[in-house]
Fold:
Amino acid sequence: MRVLITILSLVFSLNSVAQIVNGTIFNEKKIPLSDADVYLDGTTISATSDKEGHFSLDYNYEANNVLVISCPGYQTIFLSSFDSKKELNILMKPLLNKLNEVVITRNDKFTRKEKLQLFRRFFLGETINALNTFIQNEDDIYFKYDKENYILKAFSDKPLIILNTSLGYKINYELVTFEVNFNSLSVKPDNAVKCLYQGFSRFVETNNSNEVLAKREKTFQGSQVHFFRDLSNNILGKDKFLIYSNQLAVNPNTCFKVIKEGEDLIKVEILPQKAQKLDKGVFASFDIEYDDREQSKIIFETNTFYIYKYGNNSNIGSITFLGDMSEKKMGDTLPLNYGIL
Structure:
């Protein structure tokens, strides 16, 4: 059974232009916190607070990235909107001590090893890059299985530390949601029908050798971000992407209306496809071919969405990929600002 994969990053609608964000980080006793990480979700753009708790960071609202503030021993803060013209005062609250217990009953047929293998499969992937990607703190991951609805869920109270030796990045990943739905009481990949994960990520470059740079570019080619960047630039069909509707090659301009609404903000309207037979709730779907070899499918449960500066978009939850594009998971994820100054 082909697995339907939806990969979600939490996104919010913001409107403005690039500028510098300044702020001060402190705790409940008004003591400045040094060495706190401040970063734009999904990118390498980050800063660290100094001994006075101050930080300064480039921020572009039209890139539509959440601002994340993280400090060991404190609860992570996620800011989706704020007045960047004023200095931010960030109050960090102590992290609550949690004892996460995984209750194992006599009816629990599945071992932690089986669940962890499934987590790696659907979170990291099975590509060459994924096989060279490792979670350094797997012991912080715990699982719960909903036996009534056949859903495996994974959690972590600490950021996952992911080392991608193939693409040369260390990734701090705040796991928000991980769920795999099955068609029966199982943890076998063949019985999985849907998987989604949500989170916030910070990328730190660990290797930029020529070999690694070549792997990054190969990984970017044909990716979801590549597709959305080409769509926003109106060059689909001119950069190895071909679009098919009802098994016939079509002009992308008959599928999408691209409207520029800001320097780095693009509105996309999906044009109705009269001959398509669609499931309930689906507005349109198209087959995608990349470089005469990779076959994918994109399904829209919306008729309008926005593409931001880096190729991220506003309707991740209602845009689903199948096929080759869906097989590229965290092990093949590049920073959103890859290739953009």
User: Anything to note?
Assistant: Helices lie at 112-124, 128-131, 210-220, 224-232. Confidence is low (pLDDT under 50) at residues 1-17.
